[in-house]
Amino acid sequence: MRRTLLALGAIALSSGFARAAEPKVDPSLAAFVAKFNEAFNRYDPQEVSAFWAKDGSLITPGGEWGRGRAEVAKVYGHDVDAFLRGTTSTFRVTSVRSLKDGLALLDLDHEAQNAKMPDGSTGTMKLHVVILAQKKGKTWHWLDARPYAFLPPAPPK
Length: 157
Description:
Blueprint: H1 2-15, H2 27-40, H3 45-49, E1 52-59, E2 65-67, H4 69-84, E3 88-98, E4 103-116, E5 122-136, E6 139-148
Parallel strand pairs: 1-6
Antiparallel strand pairs: 1-2, 3-4, 4-5, 5-6
């Protein structure tokens, strides 16, 4: 019985049935996300805000809203001071939906190791980020970014 279960598990894994397919990401967008990830880990609000369009917006997990690069830098800086400084963040694209006019809707998983948690402890913070990106010429920019955390599951009834 155990061998049968192991064999079925191996077949499911090798067929791709048990795992989600990696999204197809435009190479220029993948490179932009990688550069953003590197900048994010340097904690420089001006450098990070340069990834946004001039009129782009960010709503932080704490609900602070910034519109335009100067305000995006300000609210990102607040998050750096509150819980991000000293972390190592990793962003992973989980899906991309290509839209008209060079637009793309991205879902990303964001993991921040060594983050200051809401209860004051230090740990790994897992967020999800939805970004509306736009490519003009050869350059991408974030139009809108919405990082958030999922609520814990409801207790069983």
